[in-house]
């Protein structure tokens, strides 16, 4: 119940700060467990792929980001599985209750994981930025921002593996 209230407050805050309506997905995001599966659409339209985006992807490759990210994902998944087994056997907890607790514990866990992913995105941005003229990077991020559905930092940290383009601009001091 606390979670539902918290999520409603979060959605209202988001609507006010970004001046957008929530719609159908917003309702689904409020329901516990269901909200673990609801996707968050990121773009209004597909951005043009330019040099900055290409170099950003190259940065991910060079820095072995995918491997690191996937390893962490597997570890977290094992941790979750361990949790389910532990709670069901050790405390004779019904399975649904174990899942519900896992869902609650996973909320801050997810935010930490997203923070880790965000850091990788910033690193890839820095990699691309070093090889380009400032103006090109600036234009690329401006384009990404224009294509993106705007979100606040808190909202994005809870729901997204990518920082918003606006945050990335700030990080590179392009704003
Ligand atoms: Zn990236």
Give an overview of the whole structure.
The chain has 175 residues and is mostly helical. The protein has two domains: 1-39, no CATH class; 49-171, no CATH class. The protein has eight helices and no strands. It has helices at residues 2-18, 24-30, 51-62, 65-90, 95-131, 134-147, 153-159, 165-171. Helix 3 (51-62) packs across helix 5 and helix 4 (65-90) runs antiparallel to helix 5 (95-131). The chain is flat, with a radius of gyration of 19 Å. The N and C termini lie far apart (40 Å). 14% of the residues are buried. Bound molecules: zinc ion. The site of zinc ion has 4 residues, from helix 3 and helix 5. Residues 56, 60, 121, 124 line the site of zinc ion.
Compute the number of structural domains: 2
Overall morphology: flat
Q: How would you classify the helix and strand content by structural class? A: mainly alpha
* Major beta-sheet overview: none
Number of strands: 0
Give the count of helical stretches.
8
Distance between the termini: 40 Å
Helical amount: over 70%
**Regions with little confidence, pLDDT below 50 for 5+ residues:** none
Strand portion: under 5%
Query: Rounded to an integer, what's the Rg over CA atoms?
Result: 19 Å
Q: Identify every distinct bound molecule in the structure, by name, code or SMILES.
A: zinc ion
Mean pLDDT: 91
N-to-C order of helices and strands = HHHHHHHH
